[in-house]
Each structure stands twice: as structure tokens, then as C-alpha cells.
Design goal:
alpha/beta, FdhE-like fold, 2 domains, 7-stranded mixed β-sheet, 7 strands, about 10% strand, binds zinc ion
């Protein structure tokens, strides 16, 4: 087990970090609270899977990682249908309750677990096969982006649970270092941490370490700095860092001028209390706004960068 399994601590870290951000930036209240609720529901789902499925964790093929492929393959995701079905209802419920602008589309997708095969849809999402998702969204009269979010957040806890139980090296300096070793998805945020910040024994030793945090399953892996996770651009002159003027608390955007993608980053080395990087990413939504005004796009769509 190489991910923290102290679910209560994970939930409490999210709550505390959310309150801290809202005290500092009250305007974030309406976006941070819904997002925190969604993150907490994800942890609840991982905990429920751990309790009910512990002895049925799908085995992963270590040779895939050696070949530079993510540990979970698409075929496996199709077989996860039953697990996805258990996550769908609670995740859909929280989305509907917390993200009212998505309400109409969410209503139209509310029976997806009964009417469609979530395993196949999740496999399409993971493999980037847009067609089945596009045709489903248009049949239902639902927004394609909302369908993506719903599937991402339904699949997220299942993959997080699988990843937590897998023996995966978190040092990912190979050819595919920009994508998640568990699921192959792009990161939502990067962090600079002192060793041990992520709560795992074997991370200790060394100074500032550069981590990427998967937008789909939340897995954290360590990489070298200075390369774009999306397009692999390593040319120093074609990277740009943007920070807000004045007090920025180590918050930044790493912008790739080759693909115009950007990734929020947070320096956690001086952080006075635990700061879940995905919460920190939402706390930087004012930087997302600057980026979109300047023609840059986020590496992945997230509920907060969709809603701004
Ligand atoms: Zn992942
Ligand atoms: Zn790039």
C-alpha cells in the first residue's frame, strides 16, 4: 500500500485547507466548497471500495509499466462496470447538489448507470475515443463536457482505489513522465514538496521534489521539472512562468509556449499546514482566468476551470 489510507485525515485536510483558502480569498467560497464536497465524496467512495472489495482488487500487469504504459489498461476498465455503478449515484448526487449550473445536463444523465454500460463509457473516456461519448451526449441533449466530468469523477475513485493498492514506483522519469503511471491521464496540478509531505515513508530524503497530481485518479508521481506534461516540450525558451504580483504564496502557472497549455503549480515547502494540491489548484482560479484571457488552455478540463 503506497498511498495514505487514513481517510479521515484526508477529509479533514481538505476541510481545513478549504477554510484556510476562503479566509484568504472570500470570493472563492462558491467554488471551493462544492469542489471540496466532491473531493470528500471521492474519498468516501475509495473508503467504501476498500471496505467492500478489498479481496477483489483487480490485478495489474507490471510489464505494462516497464513498457511505458499506464498500469491500468482500457480492457480492464470495461470490466470495472460493477464498481463504477456503485460510485455513480453518490457522485452524480454531489455534482447535482453542488454544481447547479450543470443541473440540466446532469438531470438528463441521471440514469446512465441503468441505461448504459459505464465500463464501456469509462474505457472510451480513458482511451480518448470521443465518438461514443459525443453520440451519447447528443442523444441525451446533454453537454459533452458535463458527461466527461461525470464519468471522470465516477471513474476517479475506482482508479484511486486500484492505484493505492498497487506497487507502483512514484519516481516516473521515463518517456511518459507527464502522464499518470496508474491511469495515463494528464495532471491537474504540480507541487514542490519537501520529502514526506505526501505522507508516505519512502518519499523521505532529498530537498524540493517536483510532483505531478493526476486529474483523474489523484495519484502523485515525481518527475523532473521543465518539461510539458502534454506535449513533452523541454525547450527552456518556450516555457513561461506566470505568478500574480505581490504575495503569491508559491502559486504559479507553468505555461508551455509550444502547445499553449498551462499547469497550475504550488510550492508546498513553506506551507504551514497540509494543503491537498488539488484544493490548492482550485484556490488559484484567478490565475486560470488570466490564462484564458491570454489564450492559454488548461491541460485538462476540471469543474473549476469549466465554471469560471
Ligand atoms: Zn491517474
Ligand atoms: Zn506543451
Amino acid at each position: 500500500m503506497n498511498q495514505p489510507t487514513d481517510f479521515e485525515k484526508q477529509r479533514s485536510d481538505i476541510r481545513l485547507a478549504t477554510e484556510r483558502f476562503i479566509r484568504r480569498r472570500p470570493f472563492l467560497d462558491p467554488i471551493l466548497r462544492p469542489y471540496a464536497a466532491l473531493c470528500i465524496e471521492k474519498i468516501n467512495r475509495v473508503e467504501a471500495l476498500e471496505a467492500s472489495q478489498k479481496d477483489h482488487r483487480p490485478p495489474l500487469d507490471p510489464r505494462r509499466l516497464e513498457r511505458g504504459l499506464p498500469a491500468v489498461d482500457g480492457k480492464q476498465v470495461t470490466a470495472l462496470k460493477n464498481l463504477l455503478d456503485t460510485c455513480f449515484g453518490p457522485i452524480h448526487g454531489v455534482l447535482q447538489q453542488q454544481f447547479s449550473p450543470l443541473g440540466e445536463s446532469l438531470k438528463r444523465l441521471g440514469d446512465l448507470d441503468r441505461e448504459a454500460d459505464l465500463g464501456r463509457l469509462a474505457a472510451a473516456l480513458l482511451s480518448g475515443d470521443g465518438l461514443p461519448l459525443e453520440s451519447l451526449a447528443s442523444r441525451r441533449g446533454a453537454d459533452l463536457g458535463v458527461l466527461h466530468l461525470l464519468l471522470q469523477w465516477t471513474l476517479g475513485p475506482v482508479l484511486a482505489w486500484i492505484g493505492a493498492g498497487a506497487d507502483i514506483d512514484r519516481n516516473n522519469f521515463g518517456a511518459h513522465q507527464g502522464t499518470c503511471p496508474v491511469c495515463g491521464f494528464l495532471p491537474a496540478v504540480s507541487s514542490l514538496s519537501t520529502a514526506g509531505d505526501l505522507g508516505s515513508e519512502f518519499l523521505r530524503g532529498g530537498g524540493g521534489q517536483h510532483w505531478l497530481h493526476c486529474a483523474l485518479c489523484g495519484f502523485a508521481w515525481r518527475t523532473a521539472r521543465g518539461s510539458c506534461p502534454a506535449c513533452g516540450n523541454r525547450d527552456h525558451d518556450r516555457h513561461r512562468v506566470y505568478q500574480a504580483e505581490g504575495e503569491n504564496d508559491g502559486e504559479r502557472l507553468d505555461i508551455c509556449l509550444a502547445c499553449n497549455g498551462y499547469l497550475p503549480g504550488i510550492d508546498l515547502r513553506e506551507s504551514p499546514s497540509p494543503m491537498p494540491p488539488l484544493i490548492a489548484a482550485v484556490g488559484m482560479i484567478h490565475l486560470d482566468a488570466w490564462a484564458s484571457e491570454n489564450g492559454y488552455h488548461p491541460l485538462v478540463q476540471t469543474p473549476w476551470n469549466r465554471l469560471q
